[in-house]
What we know:
With 483 residues, the chain is α+β, with helices and mostly antiparallel strands.
Amino acid sequence: xxxxxxxxxxxxxxxxxxxxxxxxxxxxxxxxxxxxxxxxxxxxxxxxxxxxxxxxxxxxxxxxxxxxxxxxxxxxxxxxxxxxxxxxxxxxxxxxxxxxxxxxxxxxxxxxxxxxxxxxxxxxxxxxxxxxxxxxxxxxxxxxxxxxxxxxxxxxxxxxxxxxxxxxxxxxxxxxxxxxxxxxxxxxxxxxxxxxxxxxxxxxxxxxxxxxxxxxxxxxxxxxxxxxxxxxxxxxxxxxxxxxxxxxxxxxxxxxxxxxxxxxxxxxxxxxxxxxxxxxxxxxxxxxxxxxxxxxxxxxxxxxxxxxxxxxxxxxxxxxxxxxxxxxxxxxxxxxxxxxxxxxxxxxxxxxxxxxxxxxxxxxxxxxxxxxxxxxxxxxxxxxxxxxxxxxxxxxxxxxxxxxxxxxxxxxxxxxxxxxxxxxxxxxxxxxxxxxxxxxxxxxxxxxxxxxxxxxxxxxxxxxxxxxxxxxxxxxxxxxxxx
Length: 483
Ligand code: ADP
Ligand code: MG
Ligand code: ZN
């Protein structure tokens, strides 16, 4: 039987977080909470005779994204009318870009779960305007045009992905870059970032491009992955049973976890694209491009390399830390506050992430937790200086995570300072050995792992505050002496 492989290309719509809309002065408001139809004017309501004006900041944000994705920025770009009628689009057309997009021919390196990277081509990125929102209630449809005219950047990849896993990695990386650039929050639940997955399958080894379907309504990265997986399996079955995949626009039904045909795909001819007569061609000077390029913030790949080379982190830790802008910022603030980078990374990706998971907090919410980066830096330093041991540090971390507080002050107040006085430790070790003669005998008879049991006894006697390394050494010595 023929084996099939998927071919996937993603189209991503990212709202640009400008203050005003793409072609008018209306404010960009949160379209999930704002009172409907407040941020509107004749331009974004599509009143006859109202004329659009290009938002310079939106063009600059788009340039930032284009450059971050290693695109060429052509000397000019041009807006075009894309005709279609829908009640959330009052003009009867969307201003988009067609023949002359703002950015072309870029790439993005994605990080795969096995630690490898793969380069995915970026075909183009172009500016357009968002449509409004429809709400369907009791047989009526309500229109909210707050979102109509919000700047939207459409980023189109090459069909370079070969698994749902790669599509997910692409989505995550792109989302991270947009967050680093500060042009998009990445909050998919608010719809400011939306993915469409184009999927086809073909016999392994062939380089043909078979008929694809496009999946819309992917409201989370999980939905993107599941929808793509579903479509790969469905199409594979169609070909295997001797059928033929039909080109179509599909929707993702979140409740049923299946794709459903929405419409048989129209071609670009159907949109009757033509140059937007109400807007000038946008010339992009090389000086502007250079200025924007020079002002780009450090992006995740560069940050990861710096974390490895300058701070000595492992590739794994560095990748985890840079994956979320807020986490990278938290980490850097802790290092800035004097925390040892490797130790901070350990506590952060281990114990702190565990605490956040338990509470159901997203990693991007790390900026708002009670354990400040400065407190984490202090905790780490207290351990390194031998003032507290690792177990106490973990305990303190939980307490500060829940209630806040200063590590050094809490160590004082709660009497948590490490016990490292040799004679005290030595006595505790001797007592533990005296109280557990059976375990001592079994240890001496070769059951090595019993040293952990004895270690636990000593630690308990010292109320968790003993110097673990010293205890380990004394235990070994005293056990040898009893042989
Ligand atoms: P349109 O503008 O009509 O949506 P494009 O040709 O611009 O279509 O492609 C949109 C996306 O679909 C791109 O990401 C592209 O890589 C991807 N794509 C195109 N053909 C295929 C195919 N046969 N299989 C999978 N993806 C495809
Ligand atoms: Mg498309
Ligand atoms: Zn407006």
